[in-house]
Write a structure and sequence with these properties.
Elements (H helix, E strand, L loop, with lengths): L2 H5 L3 H21 L2 H44 L1
């Protein structure tokens, strides 16, 4: 038996994995304190804020360049 065959999940295995993962997440939700949830939320904010400060302006800049061309093309079709 190859390694690939050992790791291949069938439909029943996937359903079992989903149930196991769901039970794991439920147990985490029951046992984490409010301080841990606050720490997790702060961690998400600390990582998301700089990404948003860099990515969002870049996306907006690209949209400002693309949208006028699209509007111009649509108006020319009309």
């Amino acid at each position: 038996m190859t390694n690939r065959k050992q790791c291949a999940l069938g439909p029943a295995d996937a359903a079992q994995f989903q149930l196991l993962w769901s039970a794991h997440v439920d147990s985490l939700e029951r046992h984490l304190s409010a301080n841990m949830w606050a720490l997790a939320a702060m961690t998400v904010v600390v990582f998301a804020y700089p990404i948003a400060r860099v990515v969002l302006p870049a996306v907006l800049q690209v949209l400002q360049a693309v949208v006028p061309d699209v509007v111009r093309s649509v108006l020319n079709l009309i």
